[in-house]
Amino acid sequence: MMKGLLYKQLVLSRKSLLLSVSMLAVFLLAEALVLVSLRAGNLARFEDAVEIEEALYNLFLLLATAMAFGSCVSDHDAVASDYGCKWNMFSYTIPVKAETIALAKILWMAGGYLIGGVVAFANYLVLLMSSGRAFDINEVWMMFGIGLFIAISECIRVPLVYRFKSSAVANGIVLGIMCVVTIVLAIAVNVYDLPDLSPDVIAEILDDVISTVGFALPIVTIAAFVVSYIATVGAIKRKVI
Amino acid sequence: MKDYENAIEINGVTKRFDGFTLDNVSFNVAKGSIMGFIGQNGAGKSTTINTVLNILTPDSGDIKVFGMDNREHDMEIKAHISAVFDELPFHDVLNANDINIILKEVFSEWDSSVFSEYLDRFSLPRRKKFGEFSKGMKMKLQIAAALSHNAKLLIMDEATTGLDPVVRNEILDIFLEYLQDEDHSILMSSHITSDLEHIADSVTFIDKGRILLTGYKDDITGSHGLMRCSLSDYREIDKGDFISARLSDYGADVLIDRRDEMSVKYSGAVIDPVSLEDIMLYYVNREKKEWK
């Protein structure tokens, strides 16, 4: 039963997934060329060449990691399209439990999180080679921290789409939550200047957070998927048609 | 599954919404028969079907499918029913091969060879995306899927609406073939009564959330009649003797529901046979009593 639901998810996501992977590949090539070019001394005449190279490295790492996790963890609007074509209605007429449907969704996201991690790590290796930097375990943790942030947002979004039958509403709520959390964190930390959330500052914040609570990452990740599973089962059982 | 007399038994089902109430609905679908469930749009057909499918939970009343409570034995029942809707519930990017792979995992009794036979019979392509299918092709695909897992009960909600007569007849023939097995039953909701006129064994008529008529189709059409008379003769008829009357400059067409009794009481009056469509039309206007 699970295989059928996962197969459906794969078919629905296939086009969007291929597009994301293609974009990521192009981005990977571009960032490698830029970093190699910088390494060859193309910014040598600028006084702040080191800072620019540092900022670009952080930007590439953040963006590529977000793209890798984002494209792999996402359900690619499959739930919303289920509503669009009445599959949800149909799913209540076939012998499939809400728990099975929710588990298929969570397995897809969890699998996507792991694959996204592999892709992001491969990107990291390309970045290291292109820039000539040394391996830093904290950067790896930071990547998985970004992945977790994306996974949590998807874990919140999926049950919300089931609840409201609309990606737009769910995306709005998730975006709102993310904004509130970011602002609250920034105020709570009271160290970083809120308007100046440039990639290197974000990287610095994540670095600090990861070095402080990095050990909790796997626990938080698993907890996010479990909570999302429970919320998704609840939303499916509401039978919004 | 133990033996059962009725494929569906609905007893006193009530479901309240803001502005609409499904009110004390009761009827049975006998095993091996096809029941037509008729009523105008918004009468409560889909709501009733959704309670049978356990998509909606009624406020009161109980529903048995194959002799089992539809909430307690939800999964067991759903393994042996097929629901067919007016729209294809499969995504536009899927194709028939994908549906075979998905539903093979869902239904333990899914038979890929039967599905393949129906695809061939309906001349449906296997690799073409559903987004490129016509409405008729989509309906045929849905029926092919519905008949490929040994379902004992087909529940159709306005499934033939919007189809051209050729495709509709083709599909109705498939249903008659399906009913050759005495374990198979069909509940078919439609507001196109001509379809049901051809194939239904029994009919249930719902209006504004209430069941107005339920029984064998021949009994219903046999007990009703359309009395055709002049306007002056019409004025002589007791108001309690008819459902409603359609008046025109040339006279009155009066629907009566006790044909034998009325033919004696109003001897000499012309009483024509009625179609399900006539019955539906006159019952819908019963509160006005007279209409044009």
Helix-residue proportion of chain B: 25-40%
The proportion of residues in beta strands of chain B is: 25-35%
Tell me, rounded to a whole number, the average pLDDT of chain B.
92
What amount of the residues of chain A lies in strands?
under 5%
- Low-pLDDT stretches of chain B are none
* N→C terminal distance of chain A: 22 Å
In helices, the fraction of residues of chain A equals over 70%
Q: Span between N and C termini of chain B?
A: 52 Å
Q: Name the chain pair with the biggest interface and residue counts per chain.
A: A-B, 26 and 30 residues
Major sheet of chain B: 6 strands, mixed
CATH level 1 class label of the largest domain in chain B: Alpha Beta
Count of helical segments of chain B? 11
Strand order of the largest sheet of chain B: 6-7-8-3-9-10
- CATH level-3 fold name of the largest domain in chain B: Rossmann fold
Question: What does this 3D model show about the protein?
Answer:
With 241 residues, chain A is mostly helical. Chain A is elongated, with a radius of gyration of 20 Å. The model of chain A has no long low-confidence stretch (mean pLDDT 86). In chain A, 81% of the residues lie in helices and 0% in strands. Chain A has helices at residues 2-39, 49-73, 78-84, 87-91, 98-131, 137-164, 167-189, 199-213, 217-237. Chain A has one domain. Chain A has nine helices and no strands. Chain B is elongated and about 70 Å long. Chain B has eleven helices and 15 strands. In chain B, the strands form three sheets. Chain B has a six-stranded mixed beta sheet, sandwiched between helices. In chain B, strands 14-11-13-12-15 form a five-stranded mixed beta sheet. By secondary structure, chain B is an alpha/beta fold. Chain B has helices spanning 45-52, 74-78, 96-106, 112-121, 135-146, 165-178, 193-199, 217-223, 231-236, 259-265, 276-284; strands at residues 6-17, 20-30, 34-38, 60-65, 68-69, 81-84, 153-157, 185-190, 202-207, 210-216, 225-229, 244-248, 251-256, 270-272, 290-291. Helices cover 33% and strands 29% of the residues of chain B. Classes of the chains: A mainly alpha (241), B alpha/beta (292). Chain A binds chain B through residues 1-5, 7-8, 11-12, 14-15, 81-82, 85-87, 89-90, 92-97, 239, 241, and chain B through 50, 53-56, 75-76, 78-79, 81-83, 85, 87-94, 98, 101-107, 155.
